[in-house]
Amino acid sequence: SLVERYKGLSILILSGSPIIASFDFRARVDFVRIPGVIKLYNGEYVPLGLHLDIKDTLTMRSSIIRNTAEAFNPDLLLVDKEPLGLKGEVLDTLKVMKKRGTTLVLGLRDVMDEPMLLRKEWEGRNVIPVMRDLYDEIWVYGLPQVYDPLSELDVPGSVRDKMIYTGYLPRALPREPELSPSIDMEEPYILVTGGGGGDGEAVMDWVLRAYESDPDIPLGALLVFGPFMRPESQNEFMGRAAVIGKIKAITFDSHMEFLIQRAAGIVAMGGYNTFCEILSFNKPSIIIPRTAPRQEQLIRASRAHELGLAKMLDPSGDRDAGIMAKALRCLPTMRPPSENLLPGMLDGFESIADLVGRRMENGFHVPLENSRAR
């Protein structure tokens, strides 16, 4: 969105995602892959691929981040979600870039976590002083009518003054012709997605049990496990889907937008990206949020349910197959989220482009034709 609007802009992304190379990038957008880590269900982090302990991995990540930032010399540095980076890894970079006059922006999703848990976590890391002293702006990718990610936190007014609600980040079809030919799915269908897949097994199992108990559910389903679901679970679910017959299953698709567009409805866990896709493609949806190690998805799904944007199924219930079967039968006729969208709800990219443009007008520290942004 940014490089299309500003022809002199180049963007470099630093990411620990092992699948970042699977996605398409526009001209003047590139990425640097740093060693990945994965978050366990208990909230702890472990290296994703390297046979190193987490301390050595974080040291390596921190060094790469700082060296890359110093060499790239960005006009704007955007830090995603964690004000200090993972376990403080970006703090040194923030200090160096601050001295250079780089605009420092913290991007927060609509919901971070339950306020008491977030307060405890941030107090232990001394986060608020960094937000106060180092960051120039805080972009919240949501709306205050939905949720305030810093609600009930003891945040000084100087930090509140930096907060700008952008609206959610809309999604559109990529510039690709059609679905992958390997996906032979009769339409319409229900799309069931586990997000990254690391904790999506319970959702997949619940949907499969619904079809096993009620073979006459009118629509079939396409299951997308997610790239991080355990192989043994994928194999089990594949076998059960084959027996049912009207269910197809794949692990991952880098163009999920096509799958979502063709679906009659969505069953998902309720992460931020999936929620944006549901709103953008105007799909009736059932959200089954995770509740640990963070309550982010539960809060988002609860608010979506209250606002009439989606239906939430209680994740703490007994996950009865009949409850899911009934929900799947009703899903295609549910009201789409467009009937209850709030003003400006999907204005995220336009708002962010305006914010970047304002900074450019006020003078990035290199000429526009050479300007660069993280």
Give the topology, please.
Elements: H1 2-5, E1 10-15, E2 29-33, E3 37-39, E4 45-47, H2 54-72, E5 76-80, H3 91-100, E6 103-109, H4 115-125, H5 127-133, E7 137-141, H6 157-160, E8 163-165, E9 189-193, H7 201-213, E10 220-224, H8 231-244, E11 247-250, H9 256-262, E12 263-268, H10 272-280, E13 285-287, H11 296-306, E14 311-312, H12 321-330, H13 348-363, E15 372-373
Parallel strand pairs: 1-2, 1-15, 5-6, 6-7, 7-8, 9-10, 9-12, 10-11, 12-13, 13-14
Antiparallel strand pairs: 3-4
Index terms:
374 residues; 13 helices; 15 strands; single chain; 36% helix; alpha/beta
Could you characterize the architecture of this molecule?
With 374 residues, this protein is of the alpha/beta class. Helix content is 36%, strand content 17%. The protein has helices at 2-5, 54-72, 91-100, 115-125, 127-133, 157-160, 201-213, 231-244, 256-262, 272-280, 296-306, 321-330, 348-363, and strands spanning 10-15, 29-33, 37-39, 45-47, 76-80, 103-109, 137-141, 163-165, 189-193, 220-224, 247-250, 263-268, 285-287, 311-312, 372-373. The chain has a 6-stranded parallel sheet, with helices on both faces. Helix 7 (201-213) runs parallel beside helix 8. The two termini are 14 Å apart. Mean pLDDT is 91; it is low at 365-374.
Low-confidence stretches: 365-374
Along the chain, the helix and strand elements come as: HEEEEHEHEHHEHEEHEHEHEHEHEHHE
Mean pLDDT: 91
SS elements, strand count: 15
Write down the Rg: 21 Å
| Helix/strand class | alpha/beta
Strand order of the largest sheet: 11-10-9-12-13-14
Q: Report the helical percentage.
A: 25-40%
- Total number of helices: 13
How far the N terminus sits from the C terminus, by CA atoms, comes to 14 Å
In what range is the share of β-strand residues? 15-25%
Principal-axes geometry comes out as globular
Describe the main β-sheet briefly: 6 strands, parallel
